[in-house]
Amino acid sequence: MRFFGAGKVSSAPFFCARSCARIRKNTRSALSRRALLVASACLLYLFSVVFHAGRVLPRDNKSSGTGGGFKSPGLHEDPRHGPPAAHIGHDSAQRGSLRASSKYNVVYITLRSKRQKPAIMRGTVRPKSRKKPVARKNARIGGNATHGIEQMETEEWRQITAFYKETGRIWGRDTEQSWTVSPKGRGGAAGSYSAIRIYSPEAPPWLSAADVEALRFLADCSIAAVRHVSASPNRRLLLFESVTAEARKARGESGPIAGDRTCPGRCGIIKRHVDTSEVFAFHLDRILGLNRSLPAVCRKFTFLRDSQPNPAVLWDSSLASADSNLQSSIQLTWGSYQRSLKHKCWHKGVAPRPEWGCSSIHHYEWSKLALFDFLLQVYNRLDRNCCGFKPRKEDICVKLGQHLECEDQDSVGLVHIVHRKHDPRRLVFIDNKGYFDRDEDNLDFKLLQGIKELPEQAMSILRSHHLRERLLQSLFLDRVYWESQGGRQGIEKLIDVIERRAKVLLTYTNAHGIKIVPMNS
Questions:
Q1: 384 and 307 fall within a common domain
Q2: Are residues 358 and 340 in contact, defined by beta-carbon separation less than 8 angstroms?
Q3: Where are the transmembrane segments (predicted)?
Q4: For residue 305, pLDDT beyond 90
Q5: What are phi and psi of 429, to 5 degrees?
Q6: Which of 67, 181, 198, 350 is 20 to 30 Å from the Cα of 160, by its Cα?
Q7: pTM of the prediction?
């Protein structure tokens, strides 16, 4: 029994070894069969891919020698696109495969450098290049033979013309800006163009049709006569006419405004080169919805000695006469002005009492004027003695010594307070020379003294952060002004100043509890 048991125990390891060897043999055969199946499947797939590629790949005409195939597009030619192009790929094999499948998903990148385009502004497009018209010598004024005045040579014209000529009537023609005005604003002569760049069907919405027509007239009209006129005893203006009075009488025409002896036709005022900020002021006035400024453009007058761009402002004969030294149609001091703000003269149609000392101007007009003057820092209207800020030596108040008279301000008269003859309730903003070189810590807050309401439309534009966009769109229309300020870079600097002052105004409004109310224009 012991021998038998010992024999069985001794044979057990041998049985286990044979079983393990048999299992390993079966496993290797199974793995080999599985690997064989996988390899066969891969070969079949590779064969199918190669077969399919051989059917799709076209043959070259040069290799086949027959006309049954077609020439595959190379790296620099494509039968669909035409112009040279560069192909994207990693190596020559991939280029060949992409070239073969060009009718499906081939990506091309043009090698020609793109021209840098200017900023796209709504309502404007890049103008087409046009040749500048050549001014003919001995051409008659305005192209009309009835004038009977020949054009003078440029040098002779400059010799007899002076900017501050006091007497006499100067006849001549602007040799550079000699185009006539048409309904579309284009010049009458062939090849001429307008200095007002409106190339879209419509102008910006804040400019009316009358504004656009006035801007085109000021920028493009043919100048027939230039002379000095007296706006007040101490003030003379340089005025130009597009058509002379004698020519209008010869044709049996009358001026658009009857009874205007100063300008029987249509005229403009030429101002100094340092007053170009009036052009900016006009566009700011229209964008804010105030509509109180006269149209103004920047134009080059070759008969002036400096030959620099000067602002040209539309002559408006409907303005009430201002014969006083203050150049105002209303006699108003600082004290009476502050009392009229407290009583809210003509507010809600209520007639003011005689003891209030109100003028004919509506209460809301002063709010619009204060906002406009604060953004541009036009101090000469409400603070001609420069008592609300630290003036510089270049300011007029310092030159005249008026900055030393700041103790008694109630008797100081307001300047440039003008209205129209047929509309005594509304102001007209004239002489809007702004100052962009004044820091935020030296602003004239006296311009806002006594103001308790501000116009809702203007304040909403200042809060909406769209002021920069609209100013760029509007100022771009005036080509001469845009270029005189250094293009977009120079215009952006001016807008930066106005935006910083707008932030100060908003802070001041919140701190002093000024109400924002709708003010119908």
A1: no
A2: yes
A3: 35-54
A4: no
A5: -80, 115
A6: 181
A7: 0.65
